[in-house]
Structures are given as C-alpha cells and as structure tokens.
Amino acid sequence: MARHSEEDAGMAKAPPAARQRKKKPKENKTRTVHANILHDCAKGDENPNRHYANNKIKTTKYTVLSFLPKNLFEQFHRFANVYFVFIALLNFVPVVNAFQPELALAPVVFILSVTAIKDLWEDYRRHRSDKEINHMDCLVYSRAERRYVEKYWKEVRVGDFIRLRCNEILPADVLLLSSSDPDRLCHIETATLDGETNLKQRQVVRSFYDLDCEFDPLKYNSIIECEKPNNDLNRFRGYIIHRSGRRDALYKENLLLRGCTIRNTEEAVGIVIYAGHETKAMLNNNGPRYKRSKLERQMNVDVFWCVIILLVMCLFAAVGHGLWMFQYGDNRPVFDVLSPEGTNLSPIMSAIYLFLTMIIVFQVLIPISLFVSIEIVKICQVYFIHQDMDLYDEETDSHLQCRALNITEDLGQMQYIFSDKTGTLTENKMVFRRCTVAGVEYSHDANARRLAMYQEMDSEEEECMSHGGTLPRRDSVTSHQSARVVLRSQSTKSHRRTGSRAEAKRASILSKHTAFSSPMEKDITPDPKLLDKVNDCSSQMDFMRFHSQPMSQLPSDLSDIIDFFIALTICNTVVVSSPNQPRHKVRMRFELKSPVKTIEDFIKRFTPSRLTSGSNSSSSSSLITNRSSNKGCSSLLSSPSAESTLTKLHEEQPSGGLEQAFSPIPPSYDGKTSWNLDEGELRYEAESPDEAALVYAARAYKCSLVGRLPDQVIVELPHLGKLSFELLHTLGFDSTRKRMSVVVRHPLTDQITVYTKGADSVIMDLIKPPDTGNSKGKRQKKIVCRTQHYLNLYAANGLRTLCIAKKILSKEEYACWLQRHLAAETAIQGREELLFESALQLETNLHLLGATGIEDRLQDGVPETIASLRKAGLQIWVLTGDKQETAVNIAYACKLLDPEEELLTLNADSQEACALLLEESLHYIQAKFLCSPSGPTTKSFNTNFSPFDIYSSSSPSSQSTPFLVHRLGLVIDGRTLAYALDKSLEDKFLAVARSCRSVLCCRSTPLQKSMVVKLVRNKLKVMTLAIGDGANDVSMIQVADVGVGISGQEGMQAVMASDFALPRFRYLQKLLLVHGHWCYSRLANMILYFFYKNAMFVALIFWYQFYCGFSGSAMIDQWYLIFFNLMFSAFPQLITGTLDKDVSAETLQQLPQLYVNGQNSEEYKPYMFWMNMIDAFYQSLVCFFIPYFAYADSDVDLFTWGTPITTLALFTILLHLGTETKTWTWMNWMSIAFSIALFFTVALCYNASCPACYSPSNPYWTMQRLLQEPLFYLLCFITPIAALLPRFFYRACQGTLFPSPVQLGRQLDKLPADIRRNILSLSRVKVGSPLCPKLPFLSLAKASPKSYYKKDGRSVSGSKQGPLLQTDEAKRSPLQPTDSDMHLSDLYTPAPSEVDTLPYTKDNPALSGELQTSSAADSEHLNKTIEPSDVNLSSCVTSTPLPAQADSVQLSMPPDGASQCVRYTRNSEERLKSEHAVSSAHRTEPPTERPLQAASFSLN
Amino acid sequence: MMASSYSAKDEDGHITVSGPGGGTLRNKKPENTAFKQQRLPAWQPILTAGTVLPAFFIIGLIFIPIGIGLYVTSNNIKEFEIDYTGDDTSSPCYNCAKNFSWNNTKSCTCTIPFQLDQPYESNVFMYYGLSNFYQNHRRYVKSRDDSQLNGNIDSLKKPSKECEPYASIDNKPIAPCGAIANSMFNDTLKLFYNDPNGTSVPIPLTSTGIAWWTDKHVKFRNPVGTNSNLTAVFQGTVKPVNWHRPVYELDTDPENNGFINEDFIVWMRTAALPTFRKLYRIIQKKNNMAPTLPRGNYTLVVDYNYPVRSFEGRKRMILSTISWMGGKNPFLGIAYITVGSVCFFLGVVLLVIHHKYGNRNNSANISN
C-alpha cells in the first residue's frame, strides 16, 4: 500500500510521468503499441494504449453485486431448475396449491443455494489466486524516476518497459528489446505453457540487436504494429516502425510469453505488447469441458419417462376427482369444501385444478436432488481417482488428472480405443540403437545389451550391483564413464534400500531437470569397430590439418564417417547447458557474428580470399568484433579437459592466436568452474527426443556438441579438439518436408556444407543419383542400396530411422540460393511458403552419409495392458504417424498384433485400387470366416473366452461384439486411409476394419486420426476413447467420447485437450477396468435407485388418492414429503454411490472380462428402469396397504397414520439400498444409522416444537405418541420385510442360478488369496492349452449348454447384420468354393492359426509351469523369457518375441471346420500386382515363417 | 468442475520453481490410507441361495409366533357395532334420517335396542363411526385455524384465510372457523342397560379423557384461560353455520367447554380414511367384581342431528374393549403369519435351489 501511494505521488509529481495517452485511430486488423513513456504528458484518455487491456487479471465470474442475479441466471439454464421453480411457484396459486407455498420453495432454494455456495467458493478461490498473481512484483521503467521501479503485475500496461531478471516469471507478453546476453538472446522455459521443459531461445528485435550500450527506454521512439491478441502460441507477426521510417519484422522469436520463466539470462528488457487477459497464455486458458456421458443420456430418457408417468398419474387423479365430484351431483357433501370465495366448482373445473395440484404433489417423482447428487458423487469419484496410488507415477511425480469431471462413468463403457503410438505406447525416450555409415552396418551389440540391462532394471527383481559389474564399459578412453556407472548403481542401491527404485529415478531426474536425458538415453555404448574408425579418421584429419593437406584426400568412407558424426552433432537445435548452473548455457565463444542476414554481409564475409584460404582458423580470426571484446566475454573459453590435455595442446597451436585473442581471462578460470569438471555431464536441451538421442550418440563417439550459439556450433572431435562451425542457416524441421538442414561452413575444409537429417523416405528421394560411370558413383550406388537395406531392417526391428546426408555447395550456388532465401525471409506476405520453397531448393542432390536406428522403447506394461484391455472386450486401434514397418513391429512388440493372426495390409495408391482392396478383403473375410458357421467361425475370436463366460448365461461377449471379430489384423497406411475414408468407401472400410481384431493405421495425419475416430463413433454407435500424447493427437482426443492425454515428454497440448491425463499408458488399465467399472456401476446403480426411491415414495401418495376422493390430499406431512429426498434418504445413497465396490480392484484387473459389464450397460438397461418402477410400485403398495389394513376403521387421524407410513417407506428404502449395497464399510452403516436417527430426531423435534403451527397437519406430539404404541413397531418390523421379499428372493436365486460375471467375480473375491490366484491363473491358461486338465471349475460349462449355443447363434446372426456384408455374401455364395478358390487363392493363404487360442498361448508352458504365481509375476516372467541374454539380442530386444507354439495350434485346429472351409493356396504376389496395380491385401504369416521383415518389405 | 479451471489458470502465473535449485520436491504422491485407496474394511455379503437361506427361515420362525400372538390378542378383544344410519325402512332411525338436513333445529330421537352376548370386562370404549365421510379431503383438512383453536385472540377475531369460506358471516368471525369444525358430528348417543327386571338403567359415560392429552392441554386452548366466562370471551363471534349451539355451550363443565371440549377436539383430528370411528365416550369399569357391561339387552338412544344421506354415509355406534395393541383388528396377526409362512416357504425353495445348483459353485471353488 505504501508503494501505491508513493507511486501515485510520483505520478502526480511528474506531470509528464509514465502514463500518457494520445489519440489513435482505431484499427481493426492490428494493434499498435506505443511506448508509454513517450506519452506521459497526457494522462487518462490520451494514451494510445488505453484501449488495451491492462495486466490485471480477473478470472472470477461474479462481483459482489452481480453474484446473485448472474448465478441464478446461470442456474436457470438447467431445465430441471426451471421446472422445480415453476412447481414451487405454482403453490402460490391458491386454487391449486398443495403445500404451504413457502415450504414448497424450500427444496428448490436449497438446491439452488448449494450450487450457489459452491460457485461462490470457487469464485472466491479464483479471486484469491488472481489477487496473488496480480500482486506479484516486476520492474517497470518509470520516467519520473528514470529507473526501473517495482510495481505489481496488475499495474503493468501495454507499452510499459519492463526489466526481467533471471528466473523471473513474465508478467505479460513482452517484446524483447534488449538482453544482457552477448548474443542478444534470452532463454525462456515454457513449462507452464506447454509443459516443455527445454529452454527456448528468444531473440532481441533485430533493430535493437546492434545496440552497443544498455538499452535506454528514453531513447525508444518506435511504434509497434502487430496482430490482435490471439491464442496461437506459435505465431506472432508484426513489425516495428522506427522514427526513421524503417520497418523491421517481428517474429515469434521476439516475443516472450506471459507465464514463461526467464532462464540463463541475467537481464532482459522488453516492451509489453499484450497484457492481462489479452496475453496468449490467458487466451489459451479455457476452462474444463462439459460432456454428457452415455449414462446421463440414458438417464435423461428415463427422466422423460418419469415425466410421462407423472402426467399419467396426474391425469388419472384428475379424472378420478372429476368422477368423484360428479357422483355427488349438486348435493355437495359437507367435506367438499367450497372454494374460498364460496363458489361451487364444477367437477370439470376442479379436475383441471386438481391436475395442477397433483403435479405439485407428485413432483418428487422427478428427482430434484438427483442432479445434485450425481454431481456430488462424480466429484467424489474424481477425488478417489486422483488419490489412487496406482495411478501415480513416482518418476514424474504426477498423477492422473481428471479434467472433465462429469464423464467418469463413461470410462466404464468404452468399446473402442484409439491410441497414438509414439509417446503413448512407447516411452518417447529415443535411444540410439544402431547405425549404418557409408553402407556399413554397425550393430552396436554392446549397446543392445546395455538397453536390455535397463529393461531388466525395470523389472525390479534385478540385483542392483550386478549390472554395475556387467554393464559394458566403454573402451579405455571412457574410464570415467564406467566409474560413473558404478557410482550410479551404488546410488541406486542406496535408494532402493530406503525406498523404491522409481524414487531414485525421480530424484535423479529432478536433480538434472533436463528433458530426454535419462541415463538410458545418454549413455550409449559405442560400437568398437566404428569407434576405431572414428578415432582413426580424426587422427588422420588432424594429421592432415597439421600438415596443411587438403581434406579431400581423406578416404571417402572415413570422411563419410566423420561427416556423419558431425551431422549428428550439429544438425539439430540442441542447446548446451552446463551441469552446475543447470540453466546457464555453456559458452564457447570464438567470435561473435550473426548468421548471414544480408547480401552485403555475405559478400563481406565470403570474400574470395577467405574462401580459398586454406587456413582453418581464418574465418574466425578475421572476424573479431569490437563488441565481443568490449563485453569482456564473461563466460568464454573452455580449457581442455583433463584427459585430453595433450591432444588439446597439440591442436590448439595452430589456432592459438585466436584463442588468446579471445580469452582475456585465463582459460583455466572458466574451465575449472563450469567446463572442466565433467565434460561428460554437459547437458543437452533438445526440443525433440530424437535430436537428443543423436547428439548423445555422437558424443559416445567423442564427437560432442559443446556449445551452440545462433551463429556457430562448437564441436569437440577426437584428436581435432574443438572446432567451431559457422552456422549460416538452420532450416528447421517441419512435418511436410520431414527433414531439417543446417548450412555451415566447415572449419577444416572451409566449404559451405549442408547437413540434412530426415525421414528415410524423403531423404532417399533426394539423394543425388550416382553417376554410374566411375567407381565412385558405383560405390555410391552400392552405399545407397545397402543403406536402404539396413533401413528396412531397422524398420522391421521397430526402430525409427533417420537418414543423414550432406551436400557441399559452391560459393556461387550458395550465393544464388542465399539471395532467394533472404528475399523469402524478409517477405511479409507468405513468408512461410517462400521459406519452405527455399528450403526445398537447397535440399537436393544430397550425398548420403548413413542412417541411424533409434529405438523408441515400449513403455512398461504396454503389452500386458493391451492384452488385458483386449480381454476386456475393447477394440484397440493404433493410429500413428510412423511408417508402416515400424508401426507393425511396435504393434507386434506390444502384442497388439498377434503373430498367430493374419495380417491384412492395405496399401493402395488410387481410389479405385482402394475400393478393390476393400472389396477383396471383405470377400476374403466372409469366405474365410462365414463359409462354415458351425465350424471355426463361431469360435471367432472371443475376447471373453474364459471359464467365467462359459458358465455365465448372459453371454455378454456376443453382445459386446455384435460384429464378429476375427483373428485378423488390419494394417492400412495413410494414403489408403485417405481413400478409405471417402464417403463412398467408408462403409466398406468400416466393415473390414470392425471384423478385424486389431487395426493399425500408419502414416496418418492428425486430421485422419480424428476422422477415423469420428467415423467409428458415428457409424458404429460405440463409445470411443482416444489416447495420445502429442499435439497431433489433439483433434482425435477432442472427437472421441473420452479423450485421454499422456502427460509425457511432448508438451501439454494433448493434456490440455483431454478429459483425463495419465502419466503412463499402462495406467489406462486400472483407469478403465477398475475406476471406469466402479464409476459406472456405482452411478448406474445410484441413478436406478433414485428413480426407484422417488417412484416408491410418490406411489404411496398415489394409492392414497383412491381413499381421499382424488382430492390431492397427502397423508404424509408436507415437511416429510419435501425433505424426505433432500435429507432423510439422501446420505446413504451418496455413500453407496461413492464407495460401493461390486468387485475388488484386484479381481477387476485380473479378470478384464468383467469390463464387458459396463460396455453392455448391464447395470442400467432400459428394462431395468421399468423393473425398478414395478418394484417401486409393488413396494409402495405393501407400504401403503399394510398400515391401511392395520389401521382400517380405527380412530387414527390422517397424520398419525401418515407418519408410520413415512417411517416404513424410509426403512424400506434404506433396506432396499442395503440389498443393493455390495460392500458395507463403516461409512455405509453410519450413513444408514444417521439417516434413521436424523429422521426420528427431526420428527420428534418437529412434533414437539409448536403446537399451533404447521397447518394443516399440525402434528403436535404425533411421533412421540406413535413411539409409545406397539403397533407402530410391529408395522415397522413387518412392512419392509414384506416389501423387499421379492427382490431379496430374486437376488438370492439369481446369485445361485444365473449369476452375472460380476457376481462371480465377487465370489472370487471372497475366496482366500491363494485359491483365487489359482483359479485366475487357470482361467488364463485354459483356452487352447493342451496342458489344461479337466478342472471341476471349468467343467461347469455344461451347466449352461443352452446359453452357449445361444451365444453362438446370436453371434452368427449378428455377423450377418451388416447389410453390406450380407449382400456381398449373397452375391458370392453361389460362386463359393470354385470362384473364390480361383479368385481368392491368389491373394490369401490358409491360416494355420485359425484357432481360438488366446494371444498368450505361447506363454502357456511358462505359465502352466507356474500356476501359483500371480499374474503380475507372470508378466514379469514373460519379460524375462522374452528377453533372455541371448547372443542374438538384436532381434529380441526390439521386436516381437519368436513364438513357439506349434502344439497349441495343432491341438485346437478344428478338423472338420477346416475341411469345409474354402481352401486357399499360397499366393503369388506378382500376379496380384499385375492384376490390380496395387500392392495389395497382403498377408504376413508370422507364426511359422516369422521373418516378417521380408514379408512386409515386399510391400514397398 | 470449476476446480480444474482454477488449477489450469493457476499454472499460468504460479511460481513453482521446481527446477534444479528448487530444493523442496513437491511430492504429490497420494496418501496410502485405506479410505483414499478405497480399501476400507468392508463386509461383503453375496446374495445367493446358500447365504440368504437362514435369513428366510429365521424370519419365518420369528414371524409366525408373533402373528399367532397378535391374532389371539385381537380375537380376545370384544367389539360390538351397530349401524343406526336409518337407511332401511326397518331401521328405528329411518324417520329421523329421511327428512333431516343441516337446517333442522329440532332434534329427532330414535331408540335402537341391541343385545350383548358377552360381558365386557374391562373399560369399554364407545365410538361413533362414519363411513364414506371424506374427512381427508384436501381442502377439508386445511380448513381450520390452529392458531384460533390454540386460544389466540387475534385469530379468534380474524380467522385465517384457510378457513374460507367458513371464516366469517356478515363480517363476524366464526368461532371455531373452518369446514372441519362446521361439519362437527353432533349426534348424541346414550346407552341404557335393560335390566332383566325391566328397568332401564342409564350407563354412565365419561366424556373426558377421550382426546389426546396433548391436544386437550397444549394444542387446544380457550382464548383466555379456562375459568373466565367463555360467553364473554366469545362475544363478537358467531357459531358455525351448521352448529346448533355456540362453542361456549358445548358442555356445562368449564373444563370441557369451548375449544377444549373433547368431543370437539376428537372431531378436529381428521380421520385418515373415509371409513373411520372416533372415540365418543368411555365406560369406566366400576369395580373388579362386576363386568363393565354385563351380558344382556341394551338400548341406544340417539339424538339424530347429523345428516349423512347426502353422501351415502353410514353412522355406527361401536362398543369395544381394547388391548395393548389397540382395537380389534386381526389383520396384523394374519399378515405376520402370512409373511412368516411365505418366508418359510421361500426358504424351502431356496434350500432346494441351493441343494441342486448352489453346490456347484462351492464345490468348484473349494475343490481347487
């Protein structure tokens, strides 16, 4: 406050003080920003920036005054509220009123005020946080004081100059005008905006770039024109107009966004462009989304039915009343009271009035508290999901986030899952696996072993010390590395002693706090062969440099190797930072010079003399600028690291002059503190994990990136020491080009070199066609050929491939290109397109250096998760942008595709071909699976094939998958997908896709992803879930019913768009199978119960109408009537709705089949509503007529009779809840006891409070008197029991005769743990396993043979439902064996794997051997067996395990089914290709001829 | 739902330097408590034939004896009922009933002889019963002013709106107002014992103690105490239209006059069902030796004032003894026996089911 007044005084004192205004014409398209200090003379309305929002943020919805009207207005948007208010108001009409009008308002007011209080509290919280944020400090330049003064954030205005210091948070969107950084850079961390933790560079506006002295706001007199505020974080365009009239363009690189943190920069000054709510961060911040869940939609239908029932009841009563009146004729009985005016109403009129009255009396039928209760329960559910430890990831210290609060129960009803691959199934931890350079493959076996080690480490069992010992060491040079490994393992061990390994991991990650730098990603074990070559090569180069020999004499393979690593090192945007001060970049400045920005610059720099100069240091040494020396180069030179001192000294000699010139401070100074400590610990801040992986890989070969500045990259090479590459241009990565390039000047050869790195498909097309004439060309061709071969191999192993290429430009070529490029850069219109074209021009005729294979490791537990989700009846589709081979292999690795199942691969390059392919696939599927419905077809892949299903008669599986799902996998690529998604083909595509067990869409664009989801969702009417982690998944996430974001390493866009955010994919299992199931069943049961409860209560009054002349009278005191729902019976159902667990979490996870329960909406089917209604009416009849007869012809009065009925109803309702409650915790007991106690307390108090109030019931002392009567207790005893007898009996019978799977699961829960485990493991092994003995448990299958049969029949008929399929089948059937034999035999081969084995079959031997182990143990066991420390690790670690399951296949092969089926013989692909001109539907046959590489490669 | 929008916004400006120098690691790990992990110890009943079976038998075994007890108790209650509506030409009250309406001021008396076959030993309660009289009609039930009946002077002078159109006549307030009071039962019933020796002995009927104690002493009060002159208190009010006497002349006993007249209080307690009885008088047991009402012939003398023919109502006089469970009503006993038997039967059914089908689960589970 003191500061406030001081400031105000300051402003007043200096009339031309910091707030000034000037008229400015309003513009529509752009925003013009003037500096505030220029306009300080004019206060108030003169400021040109006054129209812009100030920096005060206000996220509150209400003010003190507006709260009530606004909140009410919002609440009345909900139809139910309006309805209830209407009813309450109806009570104010005397003719129709049923209750005391004020009392009738109570529930509505209560509901409204609960919501209002909730809103108010939330608003208050927002207000507080706003206040906190608004009162943060920042430095704003004050003209009056001619210095920066502290101000609150909220006082910052557009046009203010603010000074930012390191680690400060930006208060507004600021245009960077000055930075203490000698490169005029400012580093920011945008973690709060997009979750990316890497540093991003921002540049000072170009016109302020060359400013020598510190930026002086007083001298600033430019005007900024820029875009209107928008929410695009990645776009900012505008220009700055200087007084001189010069215009300079502004980019997003100049803009610092609110919420980001300044890092690595001492100080920066900028001018505020957007403030407060107009900042991009705030514009991006939209609240949670509202979706309506399936259950709620279903519920709304039943609410509608309730309305109908209500109206029917009212109508009935009205007619009854009319007739009752009519029977008395004109002779009015004494008890038929005239209207207050004394007029006599006609029967018809009173019937009409009565209709309205009855609506009021029966209003409870529409449950007013239902909506509130559902909201409360959902909030509790969300709370519990949040609190689940199993969904908490220790590594990242993050847990599941529910961003949409009202669709929790949808999680229990999913049918289709659409998943992204990278980052979702995989860790998005890119690990360098192998590479090929100049056509020679380096398999990096040691590296593979190392990775295998991590895998083992992940499976907790591993002894920690052992890997320290066995971890492959680097060669002698890297002794420190292995020392560190030991160190790490020790620390790991110590951590493990105290806590979990994950904890240790997290600690290490947090301490380093750099993305993509886990030890697994960093410590790459080099291939000894390649390492030798690199050493060899660099020493040769060193030698040559020393002897001033031209580098071109180097053997081309060696030069390729060194170029390869240089490319890996520099062709990226990785920023280097040092470990001690984590966010201080390491500066290895040899010179200061901007990238080539103008032609003059180019000419100046690339004078012929220098270009031809052989001196490798000339370019650097000749370009000493004053500024850098003025600046003192505070953080400059490195000194050689300890172990390479010799080489360093050696190498430094030629460039010694240079270094001395640039190091006024002794080299040791910097070296000691930041650089020399541990060279290996340089930290790389990469924007993408691939980049980091490659840089780390290069570092393993001693080609380390040690510094990056906008104009140069410093690389340390073995023997050669540090080399500074002059960075001329960086052509960033974009998804259309799929590559990036850097243009550098090579310090050794002084040539202008372009290094390009990109997707193999693109780069291979850009390779300069080798001229086959000479030997070099031939060699080149061979290299390309071989590289392609290895690329295919990598892809087949599931590696991500990148090609590295280079190109040497002559000076003329460069000049020519540069001209255009510069033109493009400065263009204001269509800059992006021009730059794109310019890049295209440059990246041609490349020289292939090699290729890398990066492994994107599967996340922990992905195969298990997918397997169990699939068992849960979920269809899993993977939509990925990756290439087909990689995707297919990852799919195998994560058990999405089963080696035993057939693979349909659709690759078409035209619409017609695609149509044809789909047609053929459809025929194939039909022919193969429908020809013998009694045979193997019916044993179509049944996801729920387990003992549980066999003896559950309700056969949920066939309902969940109305369409037959075959053991087929479908792989389709992006282009084909585009055709298939065409209106004309989408039905066919869907018909094919839905009959396949798994679908894999490769190379799909974000739009296609969302189209696929939309298609499935709309056409199949199923519940869809989309899961992804990156920006490319956002559209898909938004389209799906439930969007799940993985809060991984790729930023927050997906999370922001999602409904739920998970730290890892495997958590999806628990989220869906457990929480989804629970949420669904809890809520479904609660809603049903709600309907029941209200109907039961209202029906009591309805029956009474028959005994009160349909006069709308109620025997239940209006207080009870109104508060019954709201208070007396509200808590137990909330507790049950929140806490009830039908099956324990463990069983739900071990028996995913139980999930089908939710998919089929088995807890809440439409008929159940009616069953509940009937039950409600029955129960109310009992509750009404037992007291009726008990009190018949007695002297009981209206309310003394009504009170026991109320009590009975309460008991009955609570007991009903009791029979439906599956788990009784103390909370349930308490809530029921509380309900009863509350009722009696309220009743006793109410009945004792006021002898003459509460007209008309006036229940003085009623309850007290009742409690003295034995009759009351007798009634209370018999009625609830009689009322619940049928339901109880039904439940008991159902539990024994036809238990639902869920009930069986519950029974399983009760068994002792070991027996349960036993049964579960048996259920897993059972199918298809020859080892499975005849178990009594399983032999129960015979108990319901009928249902089994029925299931079959239904599924068959279901399969014929698809109209398309049916017609096709009909068309084809006459032709069948012959034609299809002829036709299809070309395409398909018979499937030996056409059996009903589970995907786990191959693990059977292992499993059955260890039946006692739990499934968790099984999965770990699985990991181990799959990845033995075999010699041939290369195939094991990355790709699918080789199955050996011949016996199980043979065993379950249906003999006659196969013979009936159409015979297909092996295809000849050539014929197919020539016929259809498509690389056609193609089948890989993994089980026996596993080398699927060959199979899938033939596609390309 | 707002909470998450809040937190989303929170991210925008929150200073959480969880970086390397951040020092304190925020640990968001959820607490491992049974409640938060939804692992509260719980009883998990599973409803199957086997588990539920005992409950059915137990209920059956409990209910049937109770039912029998209730039935016997109810049967021991003596009750005598006589309809004196006078619909029948043969009925002694036919003449009175035929041409009687609310407007009649002269009462009509009829005498009904009856015979008690059994002696009534304990206190005998004398009720009048009405049928087809909808005292529970919504507008009827509301048509009263409790405040007035509670002795509130203001309400006496200005009855509540609820009493309309029986609130006032010619701007004079009606006391007691409302339709309930207006339609008060006003037959007078007298009971004579026809001694075997020919004399007709009037049986003493107690008219107090028939209303709830709380009604008499708390809910209903005369405007100013009980001792002052009621005539003066009710000055300025008029009697209800259908009444023959004003409220302050209901009884001669000042303790039973005005609003605290027990007949009036009993009437004001509106019956729940259209067929109802209301306590009229109590015949106190005189001594332990003689029965309250010995066997023999009796005469009921009715001052027939209350017309019921317009709505086809019936009027009855009931003599009844009571037990601990109230008046004679065999229903509850039968109900208990029925429910108990049904439970028992269902228990047997479940036993069969359990025997036939239930075993397979258990054996399957156990055999593993």
TrEMBL record, chain B:
Gene Ontology cellular component list: apical plasma membrane; endoplasmic reticulum; Golgi apparatus; transport vesicle membrane
Domain of life of the organism encoding this protein: Eukaryota
Spans through the membrane: 46-72, 331-353
Entry-linked InterPro entries: CDC50/LEM3_fam
Native organism taxonomy: Eukaryota, Metazoa, Chordata, Craniata, Vertebrata
A Pfam cross-reference name: CDC50
Membrane topology: Multi-pass membrane protein
Family that this chain belongs to: Belongs to the CDC50/LEM3 family.
Organism, scientific name: Maylandia zebra (zebra mbuna)
Region annotated Disordered, chain positions: 1-29
Keyword Secreted: no
Entry keyword set: Cell membrane, Cytoplasmic vesicle, Disulfide bond, Glycoprotein, Golgi apparatus, Lipid transport, Membrane, Transmembrane, Transmembrane helix, Transport
This protein's name: Cell cycle control protein
